């Protein structure tokens, strides 16, 4: 894996040039890490003229893509070191995982023959205003709680109409159970999961009455964990919409007014797949 | 891989609910596909008040993440089908690849021991104004062409100062050689690659005189293909900056005024890794 002569030359250059000369890590700050709190963004070049206001605030809605992250079904993601700096001059890993690992998209083609696949999701669908439906209080006492039409109506009464071409995210408080796999899956003795999701009535309500592009959840599935018929998947993806599972930090997101960037890798013939989701407000 | 009873129930629901009822694919549009031209974005909810202007224009700078995409070194990405809708009720793939596949980030820790890894790249570094340095004309006659300080000075004379906390992308026209691996690598009879990159003098100029967070290239490496010492990697990453390789569509991007969203998946202990890069202007 190593190019001839690379190790020595890289090491030499690092010694004499890179590290010492450039005050390596002096500027790191290392607030870092997905799942960390809000950060101020630099204002884009053109937004810095007089009369412009504060910088947009960014919030990471993505879990670190980690080996062993709990899966709804199938093998957990795994990684191995391919090269190291001492041996090869540069460090890199190899990953193996199913597309429905960690924070990821469900494309229409995940459940529907002929449905759109990941590279066919348009750019206009990857930057959406967000409505956050908070059912965390109910989910605390009832792990089978689902988003209902009443939740959507109550949201609109308080925060105004769900915007056109938006994403509607369920905040059930479930992400706090990570990294405890058992608590996150919450399986009973028969193996049935119990965690919140979107109820089919809420999905029907959104499709019939509003123009929404995506739904997202802070759990392992768009459907509640105890579903055996996957009504929400079939109906939502069947309507050519996509979903996002295993979102992070929804409890820190304002209920309305944020815009989510959904940075899905355009996985070839993908049924969805890992994405970076960041909210700006 | 299939849950008991899933196939039948999903198929039934798809027949009776999803597809027919929801006029499946009626809204698809399917402009889709990474690497496609600019798309109008819906204006965020709060930007639609009176007095606001046009929607931001989006341009995908990401190649489709494809099995067999040319690698600088190491195995090409591979995929296999894990489940299908007829057999399992839902479709999904498994991927295996090295972190430096397709459009991807090089984090500081890729070349420097103790350097920041992917999850430590801060949110403020993932949304940057972009300066595009066009060396495509020179690269047409000289595959070993590099970005020089003269190119940067000429850029600033024409387009104004490189913004603070920006990304500087090299447009060498090289992405047009894809998907022809031989043309993209352009190896001579000894196996040495010949494609453009950032010259070390340009990197030094940027580090000494401007405040730039990222450099990016439309080739396989931040360094020119014929480099054996990787000066640009070592110096740039050694200064706690990151790079992006295999960018797409840079020839369609305005030289200044766009903002790039760099949606890198927060790969655990990642040396960088696949990212979705979209420019807005």
Helices and strands, with pairings:
The structure is a homodimer of 281-residue chains.
Chain A: H1 6-21, E1 39-40, E2 57-60, E3 78-83, H2 85-88, E4 92-98, E5 104-106, E6 127-134, H3 136-141, E7 146-147, H4 149-159, E8 166-171, H5 181-185, E9 197-198, H6 200-209, E10 212-217, H7 231-238, E11 242-245, E12 258-264, E13 272-280
Parallel strand pairs in A: 6-8, 7-9, 8-10, 10-11
Antiparallel strand pairs in A: 1-2, 2-13, 3-4, 5-11, 5-13, 6-12, 12-13
Helix pairs in contact in A: 4-6, 6-7
What's a concise summary of this model?
Helices cover 21% and strands 23% of the residues of chain A.
Distinctive features:
homodimer; alpha/beta; Glucose Oxidase, domain 1; seven-stranded mixed β-barrel; two-stranded antiparallel ribbon; 7 helices
Provide a descriptive summary of the structure in words.
With 281 residues, chain A is of the alpha/beta class. Chain A has a domain at 104-280: Glucose Oxidase, domain 1 (3-Layer(bba) Sandwich), CATH 3.50.30.50. Chain A has seven helices and 13 strands. Chain A has helices at residues 6-21, 85-88, 136-141, 149-159, 181-185, 200-209, 231-238; strands at residues 39-40, 57-60, 78-83, 92-98, 104-106, 127-134, 146-147, 166-171, 197-198, 212-217, 242-245, 258-264, 272-280. A seven-stranded mixed barrel of chain A has the order 5-11-10-8-6-12-13. In chain A, a hairpin with a 7-residue loop joins strand 12 and strand 13. In chain A, helix 4 packs across helix 6. Chain A is globular and about 65 Å long. Chain A starts with 5 loop residues before the first helix and ends with a strand. Residues 1-5 and 17-51 of chain A have low confidence and may be disordered. At the A-B interface, helix 1, strand 1, strand 2, strand 4 and strand 6 of A face helix 1, strand 1, strand 2, strand 4 and strand 6 of B. Strand 4 of chain A pairs antiparallel with strand 4 of chain B, so a sheet runs across the interface.
